[in-house]
Amino acid sequence: MKVRTIGTIVVALLIFAAGYAALFIAPEERTMGMIQRIFYMHVAAWTSMYIAFITVFYANVRYLISHDRKYDALGVSAAEVGVVCCTVGLTTGPLWAKPVWGIWWTWDARLTSTFVLWLLYISYLILRGLLEDPEKKATLSAVFGIFASLDMPLVYVSNRLWRTQHPQPVILGGESSGLQATMAYTLVFCMVAICGVMILVLRDRYQLELMRNELAELRFAADRREAAGSVGNLGTARG
Amino acid sequence: MMSTARATAILLGKELRLELRTRELLGATIVFALIVEVLFSFAFDPSPADARRIGPGLLWIAFLFAGSLMLNPSFAREQPNDTLDALRLAPISSFAILLGKLLANLIFMLAVEAILVPVFSILYNVPIAGIVGRLALVMLLGTLGLVITGTVFSAISAQARMRELLLPLLLLPVLAPLLIASVEATAALFAEEPMIDRTWVAFLAGFDIVFMTAAWLLCDYLISE
Asked: Which residues of A touch B149 (CB under 8 A)?
């Protein structure tokens, strides 16, 4: 519990500082103006989403190797948190695009692949809801999760070959790319802060899932004991 | 333990025999895809020029939808009599079980396409006489990808509630890259100067290899109890 309290305080401070830096310290972008500040939130959400979805893949593989239920719990928690980050990204994107590109949405490579990604992990969560047996749920959803992860690069490459309109990656994007220094620091700061929130939520969700699993097992054991007890009573009544 | 190739051949024979005796799956799927093709003309009222442009998309959407319905019974029909348990008990690898079903589904899907593509060509005035061989290659690669993922996911959805709705939900987003590649490769063949688009054909082959390998690695978890 102590880790959680300290973590929450640290992340809360980080978020306030990052918000302040993004709104007031970072310089205003020359052509886009104020609206460009959504960029710090937008990119940070994507970073967190990728970390979450890579965690899903890791958890799925580990589950299939070890059949340890804690990896199943990690998988579902990371998928849920990843979908939330993805939703944040998909919402802040159009808010930024409308004033800058003049349209809310375009079927560009990156937008389209992220949309497909969002659908893939929502399908993963729906699948989990429709499988009854806990063992089967964990195994089959892990198999689907691995297929979805393998599909991720294919979705991106196919869309890239198909069309692209999104701005080239600003960081590591080649010769003419580059962020002004203060902007870059602000961005890194925001990434760390948002990832902090993501990890905090992920940790809580993971612990909740572990408790749910434990509760389900206790219920199952209690039901069996009750059933065994009623058989025993029948025996004595007859005797 | 029987060799995987022999076990696959026997299971493939069983699947084909089952379908030949009942003939329920193929007939219904062909009619379904035909209905999609016909409804499409009401929805878009395409001229022959439009048909060249949107035809590849129409064909592949029809095949993807038809596939996501047709692949459903692949594993689900083993359930009423628990026949999958009998297959599990047999001294054969689980990959043979998956592969037997996969190849049967591939044959069914290709049969559907062999009827639907010429019908499309007649209804929408898109000549295909000169491109039969190349079109068959694109159809084979695209359909293989559809059938690999579809058969694996039908093994998953068969064990869930609402499986008829679940299979398309799992399958269609994963097939997004396959749809783009198949449509682009088919469009290059439907153009005035038909040509084979090497990039997209290679992409389709890559898709098939990636998911075939994954199916091979993960089939034990799909089939086992």
From this structure: 147
β-bridge partners, A29: A33
d(CA B57, CA B131): 17
Report the predicted TM-score, pTM, of the whole model to 2 decimal places. Answer: 0.87
Q: Which of A136, A143, A154 sits opposite B218 (nearest CB)?
A: A143
Asked if residue A69 lies in contact with residue A213, where contact means CB atoms within 8 angstroms, the answer is yes
Nearest Cα to B145, choosing from B183, B110, B175, B112? Answer: B175
The parent domain of residue A191 ranges over: 2-26+37-167+177-238
**Residue B166 at interface with chain A, using a CB cutoff of 8 Å:** yes
Which segment of A50-64, A96-110, A111-125 scores lowest on mean pLDDT? A96-110
Chain B, nearest residue to A135 by Cα: B225
Under DSSP, the state recorded for B143 is H
A15 in a domain, yes or no? yes
The answer to the question of residue A228 being in a domain is yes
* Nearest chain B Cα distance for residue A143, angstroms: 7
pLDDT in tens, A61-107: 999 999 999 999 999 999 999 999 999 999 988 888 888 888 888 88
Residue of A64, A127, A136 with shortest CB distance to B170: A127
Q: Which residue of A has its CA nearest to B203?
A: A158
Is residue A32 included in any domain, yes or no?
no
Residues of chain B short of pLDDT 70, as ranges, are 1, 225
Write the CB contacts of A64 (distance below 8 Å, at least 6 apart in sequence): A139, A142, A143, A146, B218, B221
**Domains held by chain A: number:** 1
Chain B 119-148, residues with CB within 8 Å of chain A CB atoms: none
The full 3-state SS of A10-72, as one line of letters, equals HHHHHHHHHHHHHHHHCCCECCCEHHHHHHHHHHHHHHHHHHHHHHHHHHHHHHHHHCCHHHH
Measured between CA atoms, how close is A121 to chain B, in angstroms? 10
The values of phi and psi at residue B116, to 5°, are -75, -35
Q: Which residues contact A53 (CB under 8 A, 6 or more apart)?
A: A78, A79, A82, A117, A121, A149, A152
Q: Is A6 on the interface with B (CB under 8 A)?
A: no
The pLDDT tens digits of the residues spanning A11-20 come to: 889 888 888 8
Contacts of A154 in chain B (CB under 8 A): 177, 206-207, 210
Output phi, psi for B192, to 5 deg: -55, -45
Q: Are the Cβ atoms of B169 and A126 closer than 8 angstroms?
A: yes
